[in-house]
Amino acid sequence: MDAEVAVIGAGVVGSAVALGLARRDVAVVLLEAEPAPALAASGTNSGILHTGFDSPAGELETKLILRSVQLRDPVLDALGVPVLRCGAVLRPRTEGERGAVRALVENAARNRVAVELDDDGAVAVPGEAVTDPVIYTRSLARAAVRHGADLRLGAAVASISRAGGGLRLGLADGGSLACRVAVNCAGLRADEVARLAGDESFAIYPRKGEFLVFEPRGAEPLERILLPVPDKRTKGVLVFPTLDGKVVAGPTAVDGDDKHDWSVRPDAADEILPKARALLPALEGAQPVASYAGLRPAGRGVNYVVGPSRVCAGLVNVAAIRSTGLSASLGIGERVGELVRALGVALGAERPLEPGPPEALGRPWWRVVAEHRAA
Residue 364 sits in which domain range? Predict the structure, then answer.
């Protein structure tokens, strides 16, 4: 065997999985099709680290977000990942929204997430924070390497077959890799990777989220994340500060079929601006200085597919991890470790994190991905 476990995809979830396994002395290879980690969905989101206050109680997604919150701070501190611990606020504007906010407060209590309900009906969520998702993802990947993982870039998986009690992964460049277990964290391509092994149990489609970037206006910078009252389909358009002092509004939620279309639609601003200005009146008259789009790997009729394949022994699918992957990644990594153990891979005691400096991008994280996609 070339490795005990091959992790396919070095987005935030795959990088967290690889780090979790490497810290437990598992021989791991982390395969990334792109020339660097976090050049797809992981690098084009809001960068918000959610507490899970509004996640449906009892669901797997919620459990993994809540577990990640418990694991997160020591990891962020050890890896030097920049974080803006600004908190969030949600203000209802109608009586109907007040009822929805009360329900969110009750949900937060079920999830044991601290929130503060003001007399005017506004809810503050002190634990919400903002990070740089590209630096976060790459810091996880680099930490995995420091703990013994082998990161291979430009390594797209082209075939999966059973071989010698394990799996053989054929690579697009003609090479191959033998492993005992493969963990499919391929994001937008997770369904395509699963089909290479004959697993057609789920399908992924891109849900486009577009964002507008503004220079801050007024004497005071934006101090907190401004949340709308969510609906059943989406959290809605929010407004949030970035680590470099910008203000971002978004996202949209546009379901499509083209996994290559990272463009911002001409009418995205018309959809975002009225909602953003309702949250932050200082944006009235402001024009965005930049925009970007992310493609979230949504599942058709499924959400958070985390488990062994029913048709290919040795394959673990981690798929349909929509927009909360950044927030849930560490919990997912821990859970995958237990799934891998159940498949016969021995896990040692967890080693302390070896600290290391975060990667310096030299430009905003969203621009890193936008420039790559435009190339």
Answer: 3-374
Q: How far is CA 273 from the centre of its chain?
A: 25
Chain length of the chain: 375
Check which CATH number belongs to the domain holding 255 and give it: 3.50.50.60
What number of other Cβ atoms are within 10 A of residue 291's Cβ? 20
pLDDT for position 219:
59
Torsion of CA 324, 325, 329, 335, to 10 degrees: 90
- CB-based contacts of 6: which residues, under 8 Å, 6+ apart? 28, 29, 30, 31, 167, 169, 177, 179, 181, 182, 183
Q: In the numeric block, which tokens belong to residue 208?
A: 């486009």
The confidence score (pLDDT) of residue 232 equals 64
Radius of gyration of the chain (CA): 20
pLDDT tens across 238-260, in order? Answer: 999 999 999 999 999 999 999 99
Q: Which of 288, 79, 294, 58 is nearest to 187 (CA)?
A: 294
Question: Can you name the residues that pair with 315 across neighbouring β-strands?
Answer: 182
* Count of other CB atoms within 10 angstroms of residue 178: 15
CA angle 259, 263, 264 (to 5 degrees): 130
First to last CA, the chain: 37
**How far from 256 is each of 187, 262, 300, CA to CA, in Å?**
15, 11, 12
Beta-bridge partner residues of 31: 8, 152
Q: Which helix (H) or strand (E) holds 5?
A: strand 3-8
Q: What is the number of helices (H) and of strands (E) in the chain?
A: 8, 20
Residues of the chain falling short of pLDDT 50: none
Respond yes or no on whether the N-terminal peptide bond of residue 281 is cis (omega within 30° of 0): no
Question: Could you give the CA distance from residue 46 to residue 187 in angstroms, rounded to a whole number?
Answer: 17
Closest-CA residue to 259 (of 205, 196, 210, 184): 205
Q: Is 306 helix (H, G, I), strand (E, B) or coil?
A: strand
Domain count of the fold of the chain: 1
The pLDDT of residue 362: 83
Rounded Cα distance between 268 and 369, Å, is 19
176-184 and 315-319 as β-strands: parallel, antiparallel, unpaired?
parallel
